[in-house]
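Mods, move this if it's the wrong board.
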Amino acid sequence: EERSNRQEIKVFGESAEDDPAAQGMNLIFKWIDDVGNGQFHLSRQFKHGIVCGEGWIAPQFDRLDDPEGLIKLEWVDEDEMFDDPLSTCPVSSDSRRTQRAKMISEQEGEARWPGFREKVRQKAFKNGIPAETDGSGYRDIYSTPEDTKSPKIFDAKKKLWSVLETWWYQIEPGWVMVDEKTNLLVELTDKEFEEAKETRKQEQLEHLRDVMSGEPMDAMFQPTMPQPLQAVQRPIKRMYQAFSAYDVLLAKNPSPLKKLKRSPYVPFRCIWDKVQKDWFGIVRSIVDPQRQHNVEQSVIIQLMQLMPKASWMGPKGSFHNKAEWQTKIA
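Not the wrong board. Structure tokens:
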């Protein structure tokens, strides 16, 4: 499925000196869109957002095609996503947490988290879920015991476990510092700020050693003393990522992208229902008109079926020759 009217992402700078950087970002966006088939995933996201109410997409690093990580866009089934129920932003930028439940095999889980198979099986044994004697695996495990309508934790037929990926943010003590290269503000943890101070201290000591050495220097290229860091201490927002399966914590780490201030999973949403506190698409809006249309068609068919056994009916003036209607119409 491909959009006939494809829209491209464009970035524009605020001033003339921003144009080269904006052009570079435009080329990167276009490359990701073309190389990773991003336009098809965006089309699928748009379709599900309009019909179902939500369509999700996320950037991924594919290290199979490129060992350094090929940036791609991946469409995500909305049934796998669980967002903050208090989030009202169409793109979920105000979400406090975002979760994705993905079914994976034990082989994939073992490759990503060594010991995965042993940990989840031990958890199953402790909860009183024994292995089948025929060696085909476990019976289905549901998030709510004995409720077959609840999400599956383990699918015995497909031999897949549900792994829950969770993104959330925490407000922690930290520092806000001016990046001298970009003249922009960056957030640092206490540890990162101490490392930055130590680096600046070494730069200042190196400058003093050069000055005290007495070696002649070119006046035009004489280096200046590095200035103290411009920073202020204040709480900072930090993103975290965790993986769990069947109440077993597989991994928990800060986001590998320091500048990321929201979940990487981005939805396209249609209409917000203030009463139900949920997103819905155009399908819900056309259900009642469709039902009305079905009833009208049923009534028309019923009248046509009853016509041969009933008298002819019509508005006044429809029958000009009553005798012909009575004798010639079967």
